[in-house]
Amino acid sequence: MERSVNADPFQRSDSSDRWTGWRNWLGFWFLGLCNNFGYVVMLSAAHDILRKQESGNSTLTASATLAVDFQVRNNSNASRYDCNPVSTAAVLLADILPSLSVKLAAPFVIHAVPYGFRVMICVIMTATSFLLVAFSSAVWMSILGVIFASFSSGLGELSFLALSTFFSRDVLGGWGSGTGGAGVAGALLYSALTQAGLSPRITLLTMLVVPFSMILSYFCLLVFPTRLSHWKPSLNDCLVSCSEERERLIEGAGRGERRGAGEACVDPLVSCNQSLLKFMFPLGLVYFAEYFINQGLMELLYFPNFFLSHAEQYRWYQTLYQLGVLVSRSSLCCVKIRKLWLLALLQILNAVLLLFAVGYQFLPSAWLVFVIILYEGLLGGAAYVNTFFFISKEAKDRQREFSMSTASVGDSFGIALAALVAFPVHRYFCSL
Q1: 158, 106 Cβ separation under 8 angstroms
Q2: Helix or strand (DSSP H, E) at 24
Q3: CA-CA distance, 97 to 154, in Å (whole number)?
Q4: CA nearest 425: which of 348, 354, 364?
Q5: Could you state, in order of their start, the residue ranges of all structural domains in the chain?
Q6: Distance CA 199, CA 83 (A)
Q7: Are 214 and 160 in contact (CB under 8 A)?
Q8: What topology in the membrane does the UniProt record assign (predicted)?
Q9: Which H or E run includes 308?
Q10: pLDDT tens for each residue of the chain, 432 residues long
Q11: CA angle 86, 66, 413 (to 5 degrees)
Q12: Exposure pattern of 220-254 as b/e (b: 16+ CB <10 Å)?
């Protein structure tokens, strides 16, 4: 039976060679970058293409992007907040639901799918999302591209987090840093190419190199334990121990004994889920507060007398947030934070502060908001990378792979809940 080899935080899973350790760290860094990079770039391109379609049919649609461009303004809007006609919370909800759905269902069945097949599914779906958005002739095609990208991102996250349990724990630092860098690098590269004169369609087709890079990172860069196969299912002890125990009992145990053992065999899975709650709740709260700020309040934090326009202020908010996430997700090698509830509390205080700032407009300048947004990104990135580090450290060997994939639902659930709450808040303030 395959087992996690992650019992010691910084011992190599298959070799003491330092170069092997660096290859695995870099491999997970690129996997994290590719898993989120394509999603960011595709969403940016989808916004441009949707806007082009809107100009052709005069129909207002929600832009499928987290970095919303406010160039299309509602000139008739008399609100003091200079609101965008469609809340970015509605966009966020459409973006996160496919990822949330796969994270909720997949951990209980995904162990039957070999990691090599999972990677190929992610690659195919990411490439499909690029092609759908690039060649879309209708809004529904672009939205379908968003769905494919969201599904691929969710499947990739839970799969690569589970895969990390077969390597030394320091690869989580590479994964976290890569996912943090994807937001900054993806948005900057897309903006640079389009600014250089390439059309969104050509730029998007150029980005097909991203899924190819994921294949190289997984199959060529990582140094796998010899007993882990690309094309055979990994044996998730937490899920398969029950069936094996039943098989042994059928051979020689009586009915009463089978019933007692059958009941006992549910315990590993139940106890696993219960032990994860202390990690998933704080992570979910952090991301709820974080995306309530990003998608419900950030576009309302507008300073009309500032030297930056509303669109430029919002873009800098998003950029500083992504920079904060990148820094904190890359900090695992330097500092580890076990008090996850403290991070959740601080992020909630951030959300409350900015909610009152939107309502009463007492903040003097956008400079102060820049600092708060950067701090928000630092908290969010720290919560993410430390959550999975301590799950990997504290989970039992039999449960570690399942725990890593299951816990990834915490942030997605928090984001989805934030979108539901942020939407009416946005509408309320814009009606003032």
Answers
A1: yes
A2: helix 18-57
A3: 10
A4: 354
A5: 18-54+81-236+271-431
A6: 28
A7: no
A8: Multi-pass membrane protein
A9: none
A10: 344 444 444 444 444 578 888 999 999 999 999 998 877 776 666 556 655 555 555 433 333 343 344 444 444 455 667 775 555 555 667 678 888 889 888 877 888 889 999 999 999 999 998 898 888 877 778 778 888 988 999 999 999 999 998 898 889 999 999 998 888 888 788 778 877 888 878 888 988 999 999 999 999 999 988 777 777 776 565 555 555 544 554 455 455 544 444 444 445 555 666 678 889 999 999 999 998 998 789 888 989 889 988 878 887 888 888 899 999 999 888 889 999 999 999 999 999 999 999 999 999 999 999 999 999 999 999 999 999 999 998 888 778 888 888 888 888 889 889 888 888 888 888 887
A11: 95
A12: ebbbbbeebeeeeebebbbbbbbeebeeebeeeee
Q: DSSP characters for 228-244?
A: --SSS----HHHHHHHH
Structure tokens at 201: 């369609």
Task: Please give the backbone phi and psi of residue 351, each rounded to the nearest 5 degrees, phi first.
Answer: -65, -45
Q: 3-state secondary structure string, 180-232?
A: HHHHHHHHHHHHHHHHCCCCHHHHHHHCCHHHHHHHHHHHHHCCCCCCCCCCC
Q: Determine whether 363 is exposed, middle or buried from the number of CB atoms within 10 Å of its CB (0-12, 13-18, 19+).
A: middle
Residue type, 392: S
Please state, in angstroms and rounded to a whole number, the distance separating the CA atoms of residues 32 and 89. Answer: 25
Tokens, residue 319:
């950029």
Q: Which of 29, 25, 42 is nearest to 127 (CA)?
A: 42
Distance CA(417)–CA(405), nearest Å, equals 20
Can you tell me which residue has the tokens 């507008």?
Answer: 302
In 58-114, where does DSSP find H-type helix? 88-105
In CATH, the number for domain 18-54+81-236+271-431 is 1.20.1250.20
Output the pTM of the full model.
0.79
Return phi, psi of residue 386, to 5°: -75, -30
Written as one string, the DSSP assignment of 123-145 is HHHHHHHHHHHHT--SHHHHHHH
